[in-house]
Amino acid sequence: MRLKKEDNIDEKRLYLITDVSGFTPQIGRLVSMMNYVRWTTLRAVDGLTADELDYLHDENSNSIGALLSHIASVEMSYQVGTLENRGLTRDEMEKWGAALKLGERGRKEVKGHSLEHYVKLLEDVRNNTLRGFAERDDEWLHEESIFRNDMSANNYFKWFHVFEDELNHRGQIRWIRKRLPTSK
């Protein structure tokens, strides 16, 4: 699969952290950062086959496909936590748990999919995020709640963490891609 221009990412504005139509100013800036990160992630996997997406560098590695699923599952879990103010249900954990946790379960359960599958998963989750963001204002970004280690965090930090996590895994994806048997 060769990627096409995403409808919600204006490539001419990739290097601008600025207002985005349909969002309040600070949410728009957050969306512009998330768009850039997603654009770079999609470029990192462009053209990969299902076998390449399933490749495991060693017995402790995650596959590129599992990392893409993880990126989507993390974003979905932050949607639930920040947009719906709840934790994941049992059904959601069953559906997303392997991708969220990765490791052995991820290696067993997240495989056999095409790039189109992962791109659609990422797009569907992102579209839900954008719908939720469009319904909120900048004050929502600054709402605080207890986060990890009983520390306060605001929604701005939580969503920064979502794309920070994606950036980290994009780096892993690039590392794995360079080591694919087909790239030698």
Considering the chains and any ligands shown, give keywords for the structure.
single chain, 184 residues, mainly alpha, Four Helix Bundle (Hemerythrin (Met), subunit A), two-stranded antiparallel ribbon, 3% strand
Return the CATH architecture.
Answer: Up-down Bundle
Could you say how many structural domains there are in total?
1
CATH topology: Four Helix Bundle (Hemerythrin (Met), subunit A)
Distance between the termini: 20 Å
CATH superfamily grouping: dinb family like domain
Mean pLDDT: 93
Helix content: 55-70%
Strand content: under 5%
Poorly predicted parts? none
CATH class descriptor:
Mainly Alpha
How many helical stretches? 8
Structural class: mainly alpha
Oligomerization category of the chains in this entry: single chain
Please tell me what the overall shape is. Answer: globular
What radius of gyration results from the CA coordinates? 17 Å
How would you describe the overall organization of this protein?
The chain has eight helices and two strands. The relative contact order is 0.17. Strand 1 and strand 2 form a beta hairpin. Helix 3 (64-83) packs across helix 4. By secondary structure, the chain is mostly helical. The chain has a single domain (48-183), classed as Up-down Bundle (Four Helix Bundle (Hemerythrin (Met), subunit A)), CATH 1.20.120.450. The chain has helices at residues 25-45, 50-54, 64-83, 90-101, 103-109, 115-134, 138-141, 155-178; strands spanning 144-146, 152-154. The model has no long low-confidence stretch (mean pLDDT 93). The radius of gyration is 17 Å and the shape is globular. The protein has a two-stranded antiparallel ribbon.
